[in-house]
Amino acid sequence: MPNFLKNNQSPLEYVTIKVDDQSHINIKDQKKCLNQCENKPCTYYCPTRVFSWDEQSNKIRVDYSRCIECLACPFGCPLNNIDWNFPRGSYGVIYQPNGQ
């Protein structure tokens, strides 16, 4: 799946992410995703693919280590089922100017 950037560049090329051992993104109720969410939009609108559907467990998987803190996820979920907070102090994304 393309990531919507010019020349198929990954948005992860321009950031460094200091990953915490605690997720700052959570699914509030996995049953809503399974039973009420028809097309799982979180799995395709996130530019860094933080969310994926796990067929075996019938759950949304959250790879918070890929998050670039764009805040698209809580606004894009049609069921208001994503809990997003800024990462704890000294963790999270560090943007690099000009891809340096």
Model description:
The chain has a domain of 63 residues: Alpha-Beta Plaits, CATH 3.30.70. Helix content is 15%, strand content 22%. It has 3 helices and 6 strands. The strands form 3 sheets. The chain has a two-stranded antiparallel ribbon with strand order 1-6. Strand 3 and strand 4 form a beta hairpin. It is globular, with a radius of gyration of 14 Å.
Taking all Cα atoms into account, the compactness measure Rg is 14 Å
Number of helices: 3
CATH architecture of the domain at 25-87: 2-Layer Sandwich
What percent of residues adopt helix (DSSP H or I)? 10-25%
In whole angstroms, the N-to-C terminal distance is: 25 Å
Helix-strand category: alpha+beta
Low-confidence stretches: none
Report the strand count. Answer: 6
Outline: globular
CATH topology (fold) name of the domain at 25-87: Alpha-Beta Plaits
Give the mean pLDDT: 87
Provide the fold topology.
Layout: E1 15-18, E2 25-27, H1 30-35, H2 42-45, E3 51-54, E4 59-62, H3 72-76, E5 82-84, E6 92-95
Antiparallel strand pairs: 1-6, 2-5, 3-4
Question: In summary, what is this structure?
Answer:
This protein is α+β, with helices and mostly antiparallel strands and about 100 residues long. The protein is about 15% helix and about 20% strand. Strand 3 and strand 4 form a beta hairpin.
